[in-house]
Amino acid sequence: MRVIILGLALLMSASTWANVYSLPTNGSRLIGEIQHHIVQKGEYFQTIAKQYNVGILELMESNPGVDPFLPTPGLDLIIPTQMLLPDTAYKGIVINLPELRLYFYPKNKREVHVFPIGIGRVGRETPEMTTKIKARIPNPSWTPPASIRQEHLEERGEVLPRIVPAGPDNPLGKFAMQLAYGDGSYLIHGTNKDFGVGMRVSAGCIRLNPDDIEWLFDKVKYGEPVRIINQPVKFSNEPNGVKIFEVYSPLSRSDGSQNVIKLSQQALKFTTQADVDSRKVTDALLAQSGLPAQVQLN
């Protein structure tokens, strides 16, 4: 069962949901429930995504054909708050890049917290890795690399300082966690802008909403395991006999072309089970909605 914790933000005009799910039992990997939202006049996808703490792209993929800037009032939107857990150990931080989601499994608790994230854009992709938290940095300063400074100058005519001090102009927000990968330039951090979470727009770091990173920063300790994976397809033989197949848009290549989904041996084995409907599998692969689809034969 999905546990929704409604914080003090209810007292504000724009409510924020903390998405917390009980870990499933008996071999199940399905968490949460699909929600629905009736569009009100003046709402658009960014405000709706904030209300349910989901990403903008996942909201768009769950509701194809809907104008994200001018959705029709009265329209019934699907809120993608049901999903299969990634095929990894339920430990520490797990980031599945195609989902644009971060999963946090608190130690000694039967629950998982799920957050929308921003990741690296084309040409500055967030790499897959198995690593850990190397440092926790409150009120971080930002030292933009020379390549980023040059990029801003050429594309925006903007001269970036060599060091951006902590404060409201710092794009890292109020909290950052450094990953023990490469030269240590990859961070999980907040933001000072109302943009980019739930999208592929960063320079390679993982970006969270300010409230989310503040909560996560308080819970995550030095040495916490972090695994960044690339699983555009998730699937599960649920204990009740239901077959679940969940597909996301694959990451784009550095040249801008879209990667083609290649099913793993395990996924192929799943889809060729006698009680799986191949037409439903094909529909899910084409739709790439990010929603868990039942693909068993009726």
What is the CATH level 1 assignment of the largest domain? Mainly Beta
CATH superfamily of the largest domain: L,D-transpeptidase catalytic domain-like
Number of helices: 6
Strand percent estimate = 25-35%
Work out the radius of gyration. Answer: 19 Å
Total of domains: 3
Mean pLDDT across residues: 88
Provide the CATH architecture of the largest domain: Beta Barrel
What would you call the shape?
Answer: globular
Please describe the biggest sheet, giving its number of strands, its sense, and whether it closes into a barrel.
Answer: 10 strands, mixed
CATH topology of the largest domain: L,D-transpeptidase catalytic domain-like
Low-confidence stretches: 1-16
Helix content: 10-25%
Series of H and E elements: EEEEHHEEEEEEEHEEEEHEEEHHE
Structural class call reads alpha+beta
Can you put this structure into words, describing what you see?
With 298 residues, the chain is α+β, with helices and mostly antiparallel strands. The chain has three domains: 2-85, Roll (Membrane-bound Lytic Murein Transglycosylase D, Chain A); 118-229, L,D-transpeptidase catalytic domain-like, CATH 2.40.440; 233-294, no CATH class. It has six helices and 19 strands. It has helices at 45-52, 56-62, 146-156, 210-219, 265-271, 278-287; strands at residues 2-6, 17-22, 30-32, 35-38, 76-79, 82-84, 92-96, 101-105, 111-116, 119-120, 129-138, 175-179, 187-189, 200-202, 206-207, 225-229, 233-237, 243-247, 293-294. The protein has a ten-stranded mixed sheet with strand order 1-2-9-8-7-16-11-12-13-15. It starts with a strand and ends with a strand. Residues 1-16 have low confidence and may be disordered.
